[in-house]
């Protein structure tokens, strides 16, 4: 049995209408409104039809490093406070850090590409190009090895270079992260830094080259 909508029975059957009478058409303004409403409805339905949720704005913790970000220690027990120039001892081993949103204080910890190597040298030890992206001797590089993506956590005291523990690629932090040994494909991307009036370390510009590994990035 089929339910019949009684409202649909009122008025003459469309097949019996006088074909000579012009069909009523909506005004131009009404057509525009109907079109806009239709497109809006379609946009809201498409994600459901495709089985994919509508794209939401990225959460601060999920975002990659942003210009103006402050830096904080990677170590979970010391994570949170913003690093200042005096926190970084001259010529000490590289420190693993993460960027944080300066407005909310949220640490951008959910993307591995945000792991950063931070170190401080006397300015005269840096190459001219490295000095240009340094903040009072502070230099920063991605911790993602350009070979296979392992974290560059080792320090070779004999050569004063970063070393990737996976395949022993070595990078020179005093000279734009230049590859000096090993199978990596290119230098470590450098992250330009700046200091604010309180000495807080901030990201000044984007990485000098894209962060990633392998021959295709």
List its traits.
four-stranded antiparallel sheet; 217 residues; alpha+beta; Rieske Iron-sulfur Protein; 2 helices; 13% helix
The computed structural class is: alpha+beta
Topology-level CATH name of the domain at 60-203:
Rieske Iron-sulfur Protein
What is Rg? 29 Å
Report how far the terminal alpha carbons are from each other.
62 Å
Give a quick precis of the structure.
The protein has 217 residues and is an alpha+beta fold.
Describe this protein's structure.
With 217 residues, this protein is an alpha+beta fold. It has a domain at 60-203: Rieske Iron-sulfur Protein, CATH 2.102.10. It has two helices and ten strands. The protein has helices spanning 28-50, 128-133; strands at 70-73, 95-100, 116-120, 138-142, 154-156, 161-163, 170-172, 178-181, 193-195, 201-203. The radius of gyration is 29 Å and the shape is globular. It starts with 27 loop residues before the first helix and ends in a 14-residue tail after the last strand.
Secondary structure: elements and pairs:
Blueprint: H1 28-50, E1 70-73, E2 95-100, E3 116-120, H2 128-133, E4 138-142, E5 154-156, E6 161-163, E7 170-172, E8 178-181, E9 193-195, E10 201-203
Antiparallel strand pairs: 1-2, 2-3, 3-4, 5-6, 6-7, 7-8, 9-10
């Amino acid at each position: 049995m089929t339910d019949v909508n009684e409202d649909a029975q009122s008025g003459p059957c469309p097949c019996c209408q006088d074909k000579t009478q012009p069909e009523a058409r909506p005004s131009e303004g009404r057509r525009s409104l109907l079109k806009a409403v239709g497109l809006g409805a379609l946009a809201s339905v498409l994600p459901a039809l495709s089985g994919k949720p509508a794209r939401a704005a990225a959460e601060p913790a999920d975002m990659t490093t942003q210009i103006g970000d402050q830096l904080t220690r990677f170590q979970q027990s010391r994570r949170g406070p913003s690093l200042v120039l005096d926190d970084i001892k001259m010529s000490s081993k590289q420190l693993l850090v993460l960027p944080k949103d300066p407005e909310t204080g949220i640490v951008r910890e959910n993307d591995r590409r945000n792991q950063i190597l931070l170190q401080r040298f006397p300015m005269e030890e840096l190459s001219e190009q490295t000095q240009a992206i340094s903040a009072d001797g502070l230099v920063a590089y991605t911790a993602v090895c350009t070979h296979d993506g392992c974290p560059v956590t080792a320090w070779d005291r004999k050569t004063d270079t970063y070393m990737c523990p996976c395949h022993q690629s070595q990078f020179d932090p005093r000279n734009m992260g230049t590859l000096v040994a090993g199978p990596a494909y290119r230098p470590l991307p450098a992250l330009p830094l700046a200091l604010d009036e309180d000495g807080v370390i901030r990201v000044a510009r984007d990485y000098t080259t894209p962060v990633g590994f392998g021959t295709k990035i």
